[in-house]
Write a structure and sequence with these properties.
Rossmann fold, alpha/beta, globular
Length: 178
C-alpha cells in the first residue's frame, strides 16, 4: 500500500502513528491479530520501520547496531551470514564491521533498510525508502516489496516518488486541508 500527498500532508506522521512510534492527536489506531489485541512488544516484533530521518547509534558498528536492534526478539543476536548476505546484496559487504557514522548517507539508508527487515516483520513501514539510494539500493527495496507481497506480508510505503508508488497495489492520497 502506498501513501502519497504533498509535503506536510501527514504521510510520515501517519506511518509513525500506525507503527506506534507517535501518539495521534485524535482518532485511533487499532491493530488486531489472530490472538486478539497485540501488546506493545508484539507490535515491535511484528513491524519494521525505515526512514531517512531515523538514526542508528553512530559509535557502534553496523553489526553492533543490528545485534542491538535484533536482541530483544531473539535469544541469539546477529547471524553473521544473514547480515553478510544482505550487506553483500546491497553492495556494502565490507562495511558490516565499520562504525555506522563512517558511512555515507546512502550506505546508512541501506543499513536502516536491513534493520527494518531483520525480523521478517508482518508489517513493514517504509517512509521515503529510496532517499539517498542509488539504482542498486532502490532495486533492492523493490525486490523486498515484491517478495513480501508474494508471502502476503503488508508493506506500507510513504512516498512522492512515482516509481516507488508503482510497487503498490493501492495508493492512499492524503490532502492537507489546513
Amino acid at each position: 500500500m502506498g501513501v502519497a500527498g504533498a509535503n506536510g500532508s501527514g504521510k510520515s506522521t501517519l506511518l509513525r502513528c500506525l507503527a506506534g512510534l507517535l501518539r495521534q492527536d485524535h482518532g485511533s489506531v487499532n491493530w488486531i491479530q489472530d490472538a486478539g489485541d497485540p501488546t506493545d512488544f508484539d507490535l515491535r516484533r511484528d513491524t519494521g520501520y525505515a526512514a531517512p530521518y531515523i538514526q542508528l547509534y553512530k559509535d557502534l558498528t553496523c553489526r553492533e547496531n543490528l545485534d542491538f536492534l535484533r536482541a530483544p526478539f531473539e535469544s541469539v543476536a546477529g547471524d553473521m551470514l544473514a547480515y553478510g548476505a544482505l550487506f553483500n546484496e546491497l553492495g556494502i559487504g565490507e562495511k558490516l564491521d565499520v562504525l555506522y557514522k563512517s558511512l555515507s548517507s546512502g550506505q546508512q539508508q541501506r543499513v536502516k533498510i536491513i534493520a527494518s527487515i531483520l525480523n521478517d516483520p508482518v508489517v513493514l513501514f517504509l517512509d521515503e525508502p529510496g532517499t539517498n539510494l542509488d539504482v542498486r539500493g532502490v532495486e533492492f527495496i523493490k525486490n523486498v516489496v515484491h517478495e513480501r507481497k508474494k508471502r502476503n506480508r503488508l508493506t506500507i510505503i510513504a512516498s512522492n516518488d512515482p516509481s516507488e508508488l508503482e510497487w503498490c497495489d493501492t495508493v492512499l492520497n492524503i490532502e492537507n486541508n489546513k
